[in-house]
Amino acid sequence: MTASSPVAVIGAGNVGCALAADLGLRGVEVRLFNRSPGRLAAIRDAGGITVTGEIEGAAPLSLATGSLEQAVDGAGVVAVTVPTASLPAYAAALARATADGQLIWLNPGHSGGALYLAAELARAGRRAERTICQLTTASHVSRLIGPATVRVFLRSRASLAALPASHLHQCHRQLDALLPGQFGRAESVLEADLANLNAILHPPGMVCNAGWIQATAGKFGFYADGSGPAVARVMDAIDVERMALARALGVRAVPFAELFRQLGFTTGGQAHAGSAYHAIQCSELIHPIQSPPTLDHRYLHEDVGWGLVPWMHLAAAAGSPAPTITALTHLAGVINGIDYSRQGLTLERMGLAGKTPAQIRVHVSTPAAERVGGIRAAPAGKVPGG
After folding, report:
1. What is the CA radius of gyration of the chain?
2. Same domain as 240, residue 335
3. Is residue 77 classed as helix, strand or coil in its secondary structure?
4. What is the CATH classification number for the domain harbouring 248?
5. Is position 383 within any domain?
């Protein structure tokens, strides 16, 4: 596939429409796939996607289709922009539709998305030479404001990770050709998984404000009003446990306030305050965002089930205490009547069951063909990952 190959964008939601519009305005041939025909009909009727905010213009699309095979055929990059918790509904179809040599880009992958999809492709016998990459957060902070109109608040400065990590340079080169200079680099998908900002922000805001959300149908500023000092202290506690998990896994990580700054939500001076409360209150960008109207929402389904749950299971495997993460996971499950710890992203679903931290590091770093029984073959006398 060449740099001029079409890009398939999977999902016509907030991120998918923002990405498709941004690429279309840059002259990239974009094919947009969505399972719901109503979303595509509105975009076809409008002649494309209108984008406002940080990006302005009317972006054409080469194709808007309900056929995944048609969207993906011949594409150099397959950008999967659906919520991470929806990946199980797409994994089998992606295994059938994609081919060796295509780059599957999870935008974003949140916590464990690439590991999950790779495990599903392997279980389907389709992994072969495919490379999967993921962002630490979505490429565009955006909201749909009409059937074919999206507002972009920010092109995020997310970091890109590849699975296996040895393919990072190739992945970064391909995506940098599409969106020059936007993305940094993460050393592995573990680093990207532990930089999931939403898993720190959203579960405390949803659980601690559950009564307010139900009483007002979400008619308050989720960050400006719903992230006061008490709620923010819960975020700080999650962050302490996340940083400890990173150390236990031997993964690079930065504290919440610095991560918030790196992604473009606050300035450098504001990040030095250190606490989640100060970082959020100093972020004018996210203050207009309203609360979800219901607790039956991806802020819990995705950011607990595919955010806190993989952290909780990784922490157990690494022997790293995670009491706040565990408590929030339990309370979110009670609120929604869902056992997130079992139905969310477990080690088994990520292909990591029974692995030690050293074996997990090898798993994310090395192509499957070079691993023997999940551990890279090493010269005599050397211990992989040791």
Report:
1. 20
2. yes
3. strand
4. 1.10.1040.10
5. no
Question: Which pLDDT value is given to residue 131?
Answer: 85
5 vs 221: CA distance, rounded Å: 41
Beta bridge partners of residue 31, listed in sequence order:
8, 63
- What is the layout of strands, in order, in the sheet containing 57-59? 57-59, 49-53, 149-155, 140-146
**Residue 217 and residue 306 in one domain:** yes
**What's the rounded Cα separation, in Å, for the pair 172 and 164?**
13
What's the gap between Cα 209 and its chain centre?
Answer: 24
DSSP class of 99: -
Q: Where are the beta strands (DSSP E) in the chain?
A: 7-10, 30-33, 49-53, 57-59, 63-65, 77-80, 103-106, 131-135, 140-146, 149-155, 159-163, 184-185, 371-372, 375-376
**Mean pLDDT of the chain, nearest integer:** 90
Q: Which residues pair with 10 in a beta bridge?
A: 33, 80
From CA 215, how far away is CA 263, in angstroms rounded? 33
User: Across the strands, what pairs with 184?
Assistant: 159
- For residue 356, the one-letter residue type is T
Indicate whether 160 and 201 sit together in one domain.
Answer: no
Tell me the backbone φ, ψ of residue 221, rounded to 5 degrees: -70, 115
Q: Are residues 58 and 189 in the same domain?
A: yes
* Confidence tier at 215 by pLDDT (50, 70, 90): very high
**Three-class secondary structure assignment of 19-40:** HHHHHHHCCCCEEEECCCHHHH
* pTM across the whole model: 0.88
Residue-number span of the structural domain to which 55 is assigned: 7-193
Co-location of 55 and 162 in the same domain: yes
Residue type for position 167? H
Which residue do the tokens 């305005």 mark? 25
| 42 lies in some domain | yes
Whole-angstrom distance, CA of residue 289 vs CA of residue 275: 20
